[in-house]
Amino acid sequence: MADVPATARVVIIGGGAVGVSALYHLALAGWRDCVLLEKNELTAGSTWHAAGNVPTFSTSWSLMNMQRYSTELYRGLGDAVGYPMNYHVTGSLRLAHSRERMQEFARAMGMGRYQGMEIEVLAPGDIPARHPFVETHGLAGALHDPADGDIDPAQLTQALAKGARDMGAQILRFTPATGISRAGGEWTVHTGKVDIRCEIVVNAAGYYAGAVGEWFRPFGGRPVPVVSMEHQYLVFEEVPEVRDWSAAAGHKLPLLRDVDTSYYLRQEKGGFNLGPYERDCRAHWVTADQPFPEDFSFQLFPDDLDRLAPYIEDALARVPVLTQAGVARVINGPIPYTPDGNPLIGPMPGVRNAFNACVFSFGIAQAGGAGKVLAEWVTEGATEWDMWSCDPRRFGAHADRDYTLAKAREVYGHEYAMHFPMARWPAAPDQRVSAVHDRVKALGGQMAPYNGWERAEWFAAPGDDTGWSATQTWDRAGPWQPRIQAECEAVRDGVGVLDLPGFSRYRLKGAGAAAWLDGLCSGRLPKVGRIGLLYFADARGRIVTEMSAMRIEEDFFFLITAAGARGHDFGLLQHALPADADFTLGDVTEDFSTQIVTGPGARELLAPLADADLSQPWLTHQSAQVAGHWAQLVRVSYAGELGWEVHSKIADTPPIYDAILAAGARPFGMRALDSLRIEKGYRAWKGDLSTDYTLLEGGLDRFINWDKDFPGKPALLAERDRGPKKRFVTLKVDAGASDAPYMSTIWHEGAVVGETTSGAWGYRVGASLALGYIRPDLAREGQRVEVEIYGERRPATVQADGPLWDPANTRLKA
Length: 814
Fold this sequence. Notes:
The chain is α+β, with helices and mostly antiparallel strands. It is 24% helix and 27% strand. Strands 4, 5, 6, 12, 13, 14, 15, 16 and 17 form a nine-stranded mixed beta sheet that branches. Strands 1, 2, 8, 9, 10, 11, 18 and 19 form an eight-stranded mixed beta sheet that branches. Helix 1 packs parallel to helix 5 and helix 1 packs parallel to helix 9. The longest helix is centred in the first third of the chain and has 21 residues.
């Protein structure tokens, strides 16, 4: 054991493609005192039986970035490390059966071209030139991605391993980690052979990530939301016609995905691999009669082809030459899934100096980018791209075993499904509900989860079509549109009420609390009795988060943030908490709920209900009795009208809500709120506010106090001197049938000049609006640009800096 280190800077648990990529990228970043532990041989988990497809396609900006990076890395990796690999860049065709699918493809094409990829949309008649064996019946078109392809997973992993070893990192095969302990601020990873002390541990254990995650529970960790799904693909025998075509062409056929039917078909030597994602899918190791195995290295499940029959039949009709070959073998192995199908990459929730890089459903395609992202988290504490889509902290405590199983089955069975903005996926509803949830639903509330909390999106009237099929559109129009309009108009002309459970809130109290908080945020703290926005930057001056600070006393605050930010923001604060602090920080999210009461009639409505001074100005707060129950009245409105947030104890929420409704307030939902806030130019977290942008780019200059020190100040000072690379703007868009989705490309004179981050119809201003970021020289009122919406460039105009609705805030401050 002389060559096994007793200490290391980082220990990675798991030797699949992702774990080895993480090791490679850590070494590449100069962190070479790192060790990877693998219980068997490298690739023994999901990697060895993976099909090895390497797509770039995604409708997620961050996942597309990560997968694009993988393809770029793999092209040169073999030469860079001196290890030959079979990497075939064949391109791919995604087949569309509908207008809506073609719109999705057009959006992905716009995103891909922004990132420098030559993705293109094809008409049905263009498909045979790319793939001569495809029948085009029933097709609306296709998406061609020339960067797609396939790679040998074992060779990829070994190439990354060689590169890591050559840079000084160590890989210990047949050395299973058996547990962890912590002492003196260090981890000890136990292996049965030797104990390794280290600063940082990375869980890259694939479908064993849940078991490894349990080791961290005594140190503040949470269960890892992971379920192993069976994935089968069929390897067909050689098809002479395909073999001969490929030999004559000098390359393989492009990888084919019939995403509306739900399978991929890839040339493998002279034959094909066929991999369906079936609706009637199976999870493994989730029942008492299927205990989780101690070791499943290089093993597979028994074949189960009956449930694949419809997909096989469809593939035979779509590519008839497939009928010429028999099935040589079937691969049926475990693939880990999270509840949303995205991996876990980043800080382990609740645990210092521990990270996740696990639960990859597309591990080969994402391994390269995941290694880069993980290494940045570890070595820099931040990533180049905002990676909230994969952040382990995005899941709350509701993501338990039953929830994860239900959602994993739903995601796997709809792997290629379109995610329309008004569609609510039905599995595992009502994880967290408001105290007035039943009342809201009885009023017609069409619900959707926000970090597990059920909130009304809009309120349907009797007779409205609220079925699944009605939601299968990218268009603005639908049963919801007149209802959302009426909700916005009620807030504009009268008073509306929105039940808003799940606001994340933290109680900060004790000597020194104000000074500590002031040192973390970029701006000034509000005075006692006031509420204000605080922004937190990283070392590069980028936007980490936004919190509302309600100051009760000199050293007593309630910090309020988005429902989805609960784990992220509490972790941010906990990480900065001094060990010897005289103040306390607690998560009190579960103790309170909130209702927004807003509109020009809000004061008149609340006056007989509340023993409060409703003449107090904007950005104040006060304790009061509302309908006979304690509440904190906060004079703010995300809707941009006169209004209050009513913060109450959970048990007191129903009588307060009932009284507000009885007084004449109209219920409104999150879709109306989104429209209203965009008209005011109010930013939303992880859309308009993310680490893809700095505070200065985000137009948050007024929230920076240059007279104090705070994280990111040196970077922001340098940026202030040279000027930001982008500027936040509001656009009025001639949008047609659809408003601009997230990350729609902004064009000017044939060049890409920015992107949208939010879009909606503004019912008070009577126009389609978008928030976004644009080249600074174009960020001026009246500037004409174009916004690419589902493949169509629509005229748009930059608006004056400030709100479009009530620009002087007269109504807000009334």
